[in-house]
Amino acid sequence: MCPAAVNHGDERGYIxxxxxxxxxxxxxxxxxxxxxxxxxxxxxxxxxxxASRLEETGTLYEEIFTxxxxxxxxxxxxSTRADCNNPEFADRCxxxxxxxxxxxxxxxxxxxxxxxxxxxxxxxxxAAGTPVAGTSAGASIMSEHMMxxxxxxxxxxxxxxxxxxxxxxxxxxxxxxxxxxRNRLGRLLSAVSLNPFLLGMGIDEDTxxxxxPHGVVEVIGSGTVTIxxxxxxxxxxxxxxxxxxxxxxxxLKLDILDEGCHYDLNMREAFxxxxxxxxxxxx
Length: 283
Description:
This protein is about 25% helix and about 25% strand. By secondary structure, it is α/β, with parallel strands linked by helices. It has a single domain (about 15-260), classed as Class I glutamine amidotransferase (GATase) domain (Rossmann fold, 3-Layer(aba) Sandwich), CATH 3.40.50.
């Protein structure tokens, strides 16, 4: 599924996958930046807490975004596919200047939202310029190929990753979250081994990849974003490995980006922070 087409005169909105565990109180730079992109004091943010089974999730983010200066923040209580085809909910989404997908279970999110009027509205709104942010499960579903599961704490292996269709806001990368904290490099490598066209993007907790309309990523937060590029790979054993067998992969490129670093998804090239940023980027 490709991203929705951008109409003449429009510019695609930011896509903001967050690795989960974002700072919500002490130094909420990620959520504050999202509010600013959504219009600041004029922001009308719609929250989808669908991935979570906790009743308070939607209310929590309503309070956070209001505290950070948004004019209005409201959650849409979608828990079934029938809810997603409710014209009232689609209309509320159509009025939003920012859309936020909470964490939880990405398969719950995809099986409820997938193919519905609300999902199509999210895609159309982003194509028309509305920023869409998602944390944890809400980050994974943004890509065309969604990271639906797989083993942590092990190397790349045949069967080491489970992929499912996502929202398709980007088809440039497959996104994983809680990346360093849950040692998920192996399953990201497993995903890249299946089709080296895909970039693998692993996002740490309290870290976000702000993807601008031109496909340039800016890293914001206390952790790092890991980019795996398999496009120059000369060998992978993914096609011949037995189930659970470790994978051979030769010719991978790995970039690890901290705050202030950039990555061009089209050029597949990483850039360090600018000179006025004193942090050092490890590439």
